[in-house]
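Hi R.,

Here's the chain you asked about this morning:
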Amino acid sequence: MTNSTPLPPRDKKRLYVRSWGCQMNVYDSGRMADVLAPLGYQPVDAPEDADMVILNTCHIREKATEKLFSELGRLRLMKQEREAGGAGMVLAVAGCVAQAEGAEIVARAPYVDIVLGPQSYHKLPEMVARAGRAAGAVVETEFPVEEKFDHLPDAAAPQGVTAFLTIQEGCDKFCAFCVVPYTRGAEYSRPAAAVLAEARRMAAQGTRELTLLGQNVNAYHGEGPDGSEWGLARLLYALAEIPGIERLRYTTSHPRDMDDALIAAHRDLPAVMPFLHLPVQSGSDRVLQAMNRGHTAADYLKLVQRLRAARPDLALSTDIIAGHPGETEADHQATMELIRQVGFAQAFSFKYSPRPGTPAAGAPFHMDEATKDRRLQEVQALLRDQQAAFNASKAGETVEVLFTGAGRHPGQLSGRTPWLQPVHVAANSSRIGEVAPVRILKGHPNSLLGELLHATPLDREMNAA
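And the predicted structure, written out as tokens:
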């Protein structure tokens, strides 16, 4: 990785954080940088420039542990070179792999200084101090989730035009394939007042689109300012009143927690974007039961019907697992049929891979990799066709685009449609952070090309360039 920003002065400490996985990890990485800023740590773009390196890991993706140790092997050599030159490097492993496999990390990589789970980020300054005194790794993998949020500082740096905000952590659903309940702990919802205060700070720093994060975000049940329990719908109504926040999104949702109030919020709140990530995982009732999902394919289809009745322009995204233990060819075809019936605008799809300690890992009838690969390819081909068709359907429409940054080419800006599609438009950079009407000229498989409906002379100059 090459440096894109000037290095902090050498008398400042330099911090490099690498994140894998979900948006929550991205949010957590930013908060770790905030926690370490009072110690003098400033971000850099490459590990070789850093006095401290944090690997913020994710246990959801396949071969997560192997990828971690491969990266640690590379960093070990870098750390040795720095030490030979009279400098030091604090090496930390954070996140869900650290939570699940802390003992193995310490055993296999004794040169790691700090191992911390997702609920211990607020303890980083203390752990850095302890690492300087300790022989061996400093390990924190407990679940004090309330304590973490109570002790995290206010975000120090502007989050950008679009930003993530964690409102809920953990999960009580215990899907058979998922490691989250074991690495992130039980469901915990932040108090509404704390969420609103953080959102106001973000808005004051220029955030216009806010994505609320949670492993099971629509199970949010935080304490309201009046002491009553707030659900996600009520929180969305309060967030929509914050000046500057023009768009609201949330992820990841569970079908079992889409209540009437939340569906009504999609109907009644213009700030809530018409795009929803709603994982189904499988279209087979038999597999859904084995997964412990708590809903049937028919339940999911009825929910989609209700959502689209409330918000006719709603687009859906989902997660699909191909080749869950015991999945038959008929089960696979049921998934393909559900995908056809719903019509997804986007999706994430994976072949099943076992996560140690989960019920599915010990279940019978694991299938061969070739069968899983073939089924995944069939699922992905159908989902790609649906995404391409959805993007193509926007050609000729005029949509509101939030400009977020530079585009692919000089004179271009990149933005987001209400349906989270990237769109590229000839426009001047002063429009970053602005929502403007854009006529869509063409839909590509993964993005859109558009033109400003009300272009200024400066915009037209960019177009001519």
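The longest strand covers residues 398-406.

Let me know if you need anything else.
M.
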